[in-house]
Amino acid sequence: MIIKHSIHNWLFYFLLILHLAGATTGCKSDQATIEEAQTQKNSLVLTARGVTVTEPTGDNNYDTYIKTLRIIGFDANENVICNKMHQGDELKVVDNGNAIEINQLLEESFSGGNCTFYFIANEEGYSIQPSGTLSQFLGTDIESAPTKEALSTCIISFDSPSQNKAPGSYPILMTASSTNAIKQGQNQIKTIHLIRCLAKMQLKVLKDDAYTNDIEVNNVKLQGTYPTSYSLFDTRDYKNYSTAPFSSELTNTDITTPFTGKTLYFPEMLVENATTDNNLRFSFSLTAEGVTDNYEINIGAGNSDEVTDYNIYRNHWFRTTVNFGGWQNLINIKYSVADWFKKDINLDFSHPTTVCEPIKENDYSTEVYYVNTSILQKKLDAAFGLKFTMSQPLNQKWTVTSEGGDFDIMVFNHEDKDITNSPEKWISGQLAFKIYVIPNRPLSEKATNETTLRISTLSWGGSNDLLLINENRLFNKTGSNQPLQTEIKITQVAEPKDTATQP
């Protein structure tokens, strides 16, 4: 049997598993998915894993907390088919406390077709520009729901992080959207990411294991500017924000280290000028062997001693680690940036070692076509194939998903045995897996003919999440946009004429 998947990207992600049109069913992912069941009414059953409905007791513990979750749905004609904010007992705890389940009725007149669903978590307490609250903007029912265009252009106001209740000490706003071809009475599994609207950042100053003298870190500050607004959804193009100055002294939160700062939360900041002096940056003084020196380190993505990308992206954890080995040595700086996970080698996390190659040697084409046949090999020949190996860390569970379109995913082990329906066997090691993405229906101008493949670990919010499956950007390199290292976009094309008549 072929399992069906679909997702949205990237830093700090959990999947929603959505079951459309019917009776409730379980979920098999650590994020959420839409699936249809059999019933007399159009309904939506949402199961979310990797989250909690128990309010945290301390600051900076809200990364996985869901207080409310709103679902707004539109049919192909942009008619609203649902709009409801779920909270309290409506967020039913299931699976021994490992998941929450939500039941959502759809408009009775809904008859199927291409639908777009918007998901907004933790909307309360947020304001929009130019005025009003986010909850007021989202409405209370179908009649008062905003339009799709209004949702896509909604701008959230960001208050000063120096206020008494700093971001990260209350529920974090999270969003996602998903467009799917929905059929009455029968529907495939769809998967999406719920994305935090904020980024978080942290500074660590450590000393090398070979350095035995004591060091002191003082006068630690985070300073620069922060955006006063951000887009509700992850558009990656909102740059019309104003900035405000920011300066805050930071204290050590871990006395076993020279300095470990608390995590701080800010909206994304997409800068035009990568060399501006207004970027967020850490500053501190370091004293060792009676000598004191001062440091200022910009926040962003980069290599040792140099930031190459000053953009601050939502749902990313920007952690700067400084390793001191003595004045005779250069200070080693590591910039670790990813989807709320660690991508680069860091002192206290293992770097996931992955190798991704096309099954057909040196064939980096991402075009696939549908074959109307029961012969599996013919389907695989027309599919996209990826040879995937994750050698480190060992025994790490992983999952593969795709977002958009109507595609199946199949997984085979190194012996070419089908383990698609045995995800417990998807565990890292020295042996390669084969992953296929297969179109599930003929090419259609009325449907989505593209999907995005991603592979992630199952330790949501841990040291890893999305993996580097396109690290050298050999897949999709001929496209107009630079491909992300964590995804491969696959496009369905027409079946070649020389194969169309084959059984």
Major sheet attributes: 7 strands, mixed
Shape: globular
Quick one: how many beta strands?
32
Whole-number tally of structural domains: 3
Structural class: mainly beta
Instruction: Tell me, rounded to a whole number, the average pLDDT.
Output: 77
- Subunit organisation of the chains: single chain
- From the alpha-carbon coordinates, what is the Rg to the nearest angstrom? 24 Å
Residue share in helix: under 10%
**Residue fraction in strands:** 35-45%
Per DSSP, the total helix count is 4
Task: State the distance separating the first and last CA atoms.
Answer: 21 Å
Uncertain spans: 1-40, 186-190, 341-351, 459-464
Q: Would you write up a description of this structure?
A:
Helix content is 4%, strand content 40%. With 503 residues, the protein is mainly β. It folds into three domains: 3-196, no CATH class; 199-338, Immunoglobulin-like; 353-500, Immunoglobulin-like (Sandwich). The strands form eight sheets. Strands 2, 3, 5, 6, 9, 11 and 12 form a seven-stranded mixed sheet that branches. Strands 1-29-30-27-25 form a five-stranded antiparallel sheet. Strands 13, 17, 18, 23 and 24 form a five-stranded mixed sheet that branches. The radius of gyration is 24 Å and the shape is globular. It starts with a strand and ends with a helix.
